[in-house]
Amino acid sequence: MTDIRQVLKEYWGYDAFRPMQEDIINAVLAGKDALALLPTGGGKSICFQVPAMAKDGICLVISPLIALMKDQVQNLRNKGILALSIYSGMGFEEVRKTLQNAAYGNYKFLYVSPERLETGLFLEYLPLMKICLIAVDEAHCISQWGYDFRPPYLRIADLRTYLPNIPVLALTASATKKVQDDICEKLAFTSKQVRFQQSFERANLSYSAFNVPSRQNKLLEILQNVKGTAIVYCKSRKHTKDVANLLNTNGIKADFYHAGLNNEERSNRQESWINNKTRVMVCTNAFGMGIDKPNVRVVVHYGVPDCLENYYQEAGRAGRDGKRAYAVLMYNDRELDELMDQAGIRFPDRETIKKVYIAIMNALQVPAGYGEGNSYDFDLVSFATAFKINILTATYAIKTLEQEGLILFNDSLFKPSTVVFQCDKNLLTEFEQQYPAADPILKGLLRSYEGIFDFPAAINEAQLGKFISKSTESIIKQLTRLQQLGLIEYNKQKDGPQITLLLSRMYADSFMINLDTYLTRKKLFEERVKVMVNFTKNKTGCRSQLVAAYFNDNTVKHCGICDNCIDLKNTPLTIADFDSIVTTIYAAIMANNISIKDLLNNTSKLEKEKRWTVINYLQAEEKIMITADGHLKVNK
Questions:
Q1: β-pairing, 280-283 with 254-257?
Q2: If we measure between CA atoms, which residue out of 238, 147, 143 comes closest to residue 532?
Q3: Which of 121, 240, 253, 426 has the most CB within a 10 Å radius?
Q4: pTM above 0.70?
Q5: At how many degrees (to 10) do helices 237-249 and 215-225 cross?
Q6: Nearest CA among 145, 95, 223, 120 for reference residue 526
Q7: Across the chain, what does the average pLDDT equal?
Q8: Do residues 488 and 441 make contact, with C-beta atoms less than 8 angstroms apart?
């Protein structure tokens, strides 16, 4: 086994691990199942990539995010590490050749989307692979009680029957105690399991929330006062464009980003922002996953997210360089009221879900009893218009169908063009002699893409055209002709949303969903929304503590730099006063059935103000309640 510090230095260029990384790696190398809860930017990938490089064999990485999967594979290849990926939407032959390479090649990582795990083809090749570690990224997706449940994750535990002695490392940035327990249970962790949780403290990050009449003016004020790179999160694609236009009109260089843009547009805009050519990225939550830009000075939420998990991850993209940074949340009361009503929209009734399911199957022309494993291009807007279904209703019904394990919807699935030769080299030589006009493109393919005889190579028609001095249109025509002649298999680029059927189409009278779990998920959604609303409206508690406590981290001290801590500094109430009064209140409640009037008796005006501030804070946090007769009571 190679020394892990040597691996870290050779491939990543670091002399030392970040806090907790080495402990996690050593636990994995000792054969233990491990859950690692590392906040955004905490270096999760190192925790499975380093031990995999230190051991013989290949690491199986399970991830639901195709874009992130591709980025990590490319980053590993850039380091000279052989890595592969399999995800929904890939053709049978492409998957088969990928699995052959994983089984017989010298590859170190195989990234797989969870819905691919139970296919007959994958299970056929699994025994041929020397798996040394199973890494489950975004592990919170396995829990029905979390904010991003994905049913295909439930199949991961079945791998353990095929790989009984292989350790599992589950990684996530945000999971409550309930979800953490669920992850370990659903992944069938052994009794030797270990858990690691980094502190949620971000000492350099200042959280604040503003109830503002004009978000436009407040945003301009923030960006004029806080210099440097920024992200502005919006809740709709239209808002991203409108806000970017607003900023550019006011002399602030900005661009917008969402999943509706094609892959080239997204890549170019992301690169421009990363390289500081664009100062502000105005985006939906499609932006930011897997991007580690350390010098983001401010993250602004132009609208309130529906849960603290999402807010924490997105806000946490600010200040990764350790310097002072700001996470600003803008809201108004009407928005919070609408958020509290979202459960009725997000969780449509059974008949509505059934109606949308049947409409999708009809739109895709899938007969009953067929379709399992097939992928189809799917334009949500066109579908909703054609079948006269409200687009929000369609969106959330599709989300439910995903959570029920019936379909998988990729809002933006980019698949580059691929080419693989279908003939041997002798036949190719004969062909070149008979058709000399094809020589340039054939030579261009062979010189540009290594292994193209054995494996579908991702190609770029425009780059290939420049290489052999031909137009992109000419390259596409020639490749199409070579495919017609049977020399190559050419799959053109796809850059749009797709639906994959995880189960064959159900007959109308047999359609069913698990209503008990569905209603439980609805209730938990309502609870998460309530937490988010309370966090937003809270005017007394340290925001760093509020975030950390939600994730079961009660070690974080008052940050001193959030809006509430700053307000507290501007009052006569010090942190020491605050802690002392909390102790006094709890002691009084436990000793007597005390009223607020009795608690405030015989105190000075200043002391009364201090006690009222603390009482309001404890009440807002639901740590105490005031009964109808004015007495204080501890919430249990």
A1: parallel
A2: 147
A3: 240
A4: yes
A5: 60
A6: 145
A7: 88
A8: no
